[in-house]
Structures are given as C-alpha cells and as structure tokens.
Amino acid sequence: MSDKPKKQPIDNTEFDQQIADLTDALQRERADAVNMRRRHDEQLASVRTSVKATVVKDLLPVIDNFDRALKHVPADLKDNDYVKGVQGVVKQFEKTLADMGVEKIKTAGEPFDPHLHEAVAMEEGEGDEEIVSEELQSGYKIGDTVIRHAMVRVTTK
Asked: Rounded to two decimals, what is the model's pTM?
C-alpha cells in the first residue's frame, strides 16, 4: 500500500462560473468599445457635414451672383470667350459642390415641400395640389441636411 494520500476530485463548477462571468464581462466591454467607435464615427461625420454646410453657405452668395450675371448676358455676347470662361467657372463650382456631396434642391414642376422650399409667392389655381412653378433662388442640401431652402413661387393645380 502506498502512503500517498488520495487526491480529492476538483469541483469545477466554481471555476466554470468565474470563466462564464469573465467571458460575459469581456463581451460587454467589446460591445461598449464597438458602440463607442460607432458613435464617434457618427459624430465625426456630423461635424464634417456641418463644416461643409457652413463653408457652402458662405459661398452661396458668390454662386448666386454668377448665376444672375449669366442670366443677363446680352444675346450678342453669348458666344464671347469671356462669357464662356465665366460659364466654365460656374460649372467648376457646381462640380466641386457635387464632389462634396452638395446637391441643388429640385424646384420647378416638383410638389411643394416646406422642408426643402420656401414659398415667397402663391398663385391660386384649379386644384388642391401645390406645385412649384418658378425658382427664385436656388436651394442646396447635403444628404438630408438643408443648407438653404429654395425660394420658390407656388401654384395650386
């Protein structure tokens, strides 16, 4: 017979419970980290959109003045190289805005939407549906964020 004492069986339930508790805690920490990263990314995107909107809003009067100038070009100067150069600058502005995610709000012929349009004149028509009949000043948006409402004339049809 041997003098060695017999080993007592180890109770694993306590260790298993500790492992389960630590695993749950780790999974919660990982989920918290993922959520924090997601919130940070959303906030960063929101700040970027806000900064873009601010810059574009400051540039809109310049764009408006270019548009006004091009609407009043005399017929005999339509093919003038200077006028074509100004038209090229306007197209470059529009492309840069589009590359930034800025888009013009659709107006003429569209249903009136108070979230996008600002009605400055209303003409009574035959129906109940309010339709934009004329754009008086362009509006712009980035995604769903309106930078400036389009000023429009509305007619009921």
From this structure: 0.72
Look at the block and give the residue holding tokens 């009067």.
61
Write out pLDDT tens, residues 18-47: 999 999 999 999 999 999 999 999 999 999
Instruction: Return d(Cα 118, Cα 116) in angstroms, integer.
Output: 7
The Cα 49–Cα 142 span in angstroms is 7
For residue 99, give the amino acid letter: D
Q: What is the side-by-side order of every strand in the sheet holding 145-148? A: 102-104, 140-142, 145-148
- Domains of the chain as residue ranges with CATH: 13-100 (3.90.20), 103-157 (2.30.22.10)
Residue 96 to residue 62: CA distance in whole angstroms: 14
Distance CA 57, CA 54 (A): 5
